[in-house]
Amino acid sequence: MTEKVEILGVRFDNVSLEQARDRALSLISSDNCVHLIVTPNPEMIIRARQEHWFNNFLSRADLSIPDGAGVVIGSRILGQPLRERVAGFDLMQELLSSAEESGFRVYLLGAEPEIIEQSVKNIKEKYRGIYICGFHHGYFDLDDCSEIISEINELKPDILFVGMGVP
User: Fold this and answer.
1) How large is the average pLDDT for residues 17-34?
2) E-strand spans in 4-104?
């Protein structure tokens, strides 16, 4: 199997869940740079074909994992089979566990206000030693998000999980 697989112009890393976790942890620990991990699904591939800026965004990722059975099936049809579907939620669970063990600072961004609050509560119950340095719901005006950006920059999380839909 190849290291990278391209499906309709979107590149994917051909990794298992464990390999994705290890690569993500390596990125987190490597330096003080910001790294981007994306989890494209079939809908996102179609959007990337329609909107050049979105394809460019996905192309800049340090790690791109196939989040959707349709992506894996498509890779097989194209004769470039991906190892497996690596759901973003599953990778998140792996990284939360690692964050608990390693003391990484975590920030969560996205979902409705009540959902993000419940998510933080659930995460703290499951990963008792985790340090969630902050969180914010995903319902805000993109033209006026400077306060959220400032808060994230001030808190300096090691991991920023962004759970917002596409579009």
Assistant:
1) 93
2) 4-7, 10-13, 37-38, 63-64
